[in-house]
Amino acid sequence: MFFFTYVPQLAVLVFVNGPLAVLTTVLLILNESSTIVSVLSRNLVLHDALLDVFDGTLVARGRAELVGQGRQLKSGGDPIQRLGRVLRSPFERFSPKAIIRYVMYLPLNFIPVVGTAIFILLQGRGRGRIVHDRYFQLKNWSTTQKEEWLARHAGAYTGFGTVATLLEMVPLASFFFSFTNTVGAALWAADLEANGPDSASTTAPELREAAKKAE
Fold this sequence. Notes:
- The chain has 215 residues and is mostly helical.
- The protein has one domain (2-214).
- It has helices at residues 2-17, 21-45, 47-60, 64-67, 96-105, 114-128, 133-138, 143-152, 154-167, 174-195, 205-214; strands at residues 71-73, 83-86.
- Helix 9 (154-167) packs parallel to helix 11.
- The longest helix has 25 residues, at 21-45.
- The radius of gyration is 18 Å and the shape is elongated.
């Protein structure tokens, strides 16, 4: 991506961002690369693996009954080995809306400095809205219940999604962070089950730890 697209995009952004275009172009290309990798990996490569990680984490946290609402569970001690056939899969293999939103947000990068930050923040908001799709499905929540919940806790989900987006922009490590972000989302869901709705305002400790390591 850098080899083929850096110079052309830099040539465009330099007119609106001036010298800062050197940095904003890097951030833009990292985000573009992250989006491409995320779409391909989640739809073609990691779909089943991420689902197993999310469900296995819930089982490990003592939420086997909840996971049982969406897949068969076997007896045993290892959380991953207990996972059986999936009865319902929440992850879309292709999301045209996400691609359309991404293209619509791209012009924000023409706004000097703050445009790129807003662009990443909006990407994070969209990312945050899907991190608990599996959890909502296992809870048998309707679309209305889900939307009301997300609206009440928009800040927490936007924060989670923004951190997840930034981590998955790290070159060569995006696949790794796809898994850690999934674990973080599952741990957060387990906390919600244990502590009730008020725990939605907190972010999973493991995700915060991953963010610190990335820094």
